[in-house]
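Tetracycline repressor TetR C-terminal domain-containing protein: structure, please.
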Amino acid sequence: MRKLGRELGVEAMSLYNHVPNKEALLGGMVEVLIEGLEIPAATSGGWEGKVREAFRSYLKLARAHPEVFQLFATRPLGTGEALRIFEVLRGAGLELVPALQAFRALSSYTVGYALAEIRGFPLELEGGPRALELAPPLKEVDRDAQFDFGLDLIISGLRQKLDPDGAQGDPPRRSRRGPEHQ
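Here you go.
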């Protein structure tokens, strides 16, 4: 708080007129960023497309604010935006507990992917016994397609839970670069 006070040109103690402590300040930063999520309206498109777009927006937020996004890993999402994503899952036909489980799986995957992208993915780090063999394909990875691959795996599992008999949902998104980059 002293460092922030210096940056703002005020005494650190005066900051406590606005926030009770450092944790509240960091939590407020996360809340402000979360308000920037672009969650599709409940009336547009199928549930699978809405879920994809909501979590792609989450990843976009991480890419735009990598320093602050790391705080997401230590603070639970309890905002209206998180509730809107949860309601998309409920609107897809998931009961309360399965919708909560799906939300946790999707948000955990997205936060984990974003943090790995920020810090560096396993196998992309220099050295190691297979570094020379892996280097060429890793340089050509389409990160959006890679994220969508994992997202589609989760959505496919949700689709199976919703309709074990196999009726069609939204088709999975295909990579622009072909299956070898997924």
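Notes: Confidence is low (pLDDT under 50) at residues 168-182.
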